[in-house]
Amino acid sequence: MCSDNHQHDKLVLCPQCDMLVVVPDLEQGKKAVCPRCNTLLTAKWKEPRNQPTGYAVSALIMLFLASLFPFISMSVAGIVSEIKLTEIPKVMFSENYSSMAVFFLIFVQLIPAFCMVAIILLCQNVKIVRRLKIELARILFKMKSWCMAEIFLAGVLVSFVKLMAYGEISLGLSFLPYCLFCLFQIRAFQCLDRHWFWDEIEPAPKFCHMLQAGKPGLVQGVRLCQCCTAILPAQQSVCPRCYTKGHPRRRHSLQYTMALLITSVILYIPANVLPIMVTQALGSHLNSTILEGVVLLWGSGSYPVAMVIFIASIMVPLLKMLAISWLCWDAKSQSSHNSEKMHSIYEMVEFVGRWSMIDIFVIAVLSALVRIGQLMSVYPATGAILFALVVILTMFASMTFDPRLTWDKANSKFALHKNKEL
Questions:
Q1: pTM assigned to the model
Q2: CB 359 within 8 A of CB 309
């Protein structure tokens, strides 16, 4: 006979290490983390419905205001050039740089705006079809990692250093609203607890046997729904709450990860060899690669900015590819590496990966703003597209990798030890 769901309300299955954890009653503003891998499990906010909504509404208002007025302007030899946020993709489309325009539209404007709208609709329990509500929630949490508004803002700040070498830079009226938009959308995600969120849509499904905290879910014959965090029998392939298909471990995780990784390695070489930007000044053309841009910044005395570009655009992608390779090898082999150490590497890969897009957004700003005819113009080059693809592919590679594989050998030792005790 199935046990009542309320008996297991405080049981949470860690999505990173598969440990079943009992979450105590939390005070307002407190968070619960996994005792084994320190992954955030759940949090209790004072106003779990209104706080995310308030920040999301504020973010959308700031984004609207940021779209109305000039963003930044530049003056060269008395000629003034200014742009609005909405004009950046328009300029790139008009100059036949559609790929760069699409990257900007999707990652900087469409996805962040969609996520804020979805948070408002779902947190305020707007009356929509249940299946549509579930699909919105599924897409919301999948798109969270692809919101790159704050990375674009960092790219704008870096581009100021380069722009100051060309002329006088001024901030537009929309710059401050856009900064506030970035802060509000980050805060909206922080105040959104996935467990509470899905319980508001529908209570977690019941399961038919008792579970023991402190033991891995796979050892006990249960798995986690990676979408809605429900605890399900391991053999159940479809979650009855969110209809997401799943398995105890992501199927062919290592194969997909390695395929994406190899492709990104292949593209990484031409992305660094080919020019990413072309500067046209007084009839002459200057091609620059990523490394040449770093050398130029270093030579001009902009040491902090040069270091930021070097770390984000050269070191991070390379180290990320090496780290993912190591994670795949460790998960496949019978090595005895410390699981905590490998998990820390995985978390670092997840955190820093998307920040490599900063150089792409720098080029987007320069290409849209520096349009002063024969006097000076900046254009993106083939290397920029290839580099953006490298960043996107490595992000997909880290997403397809199942971090629980790094803990499975420890889980096997745990099960073997328990069997010997019995």
A1: 0.86
A2: yes
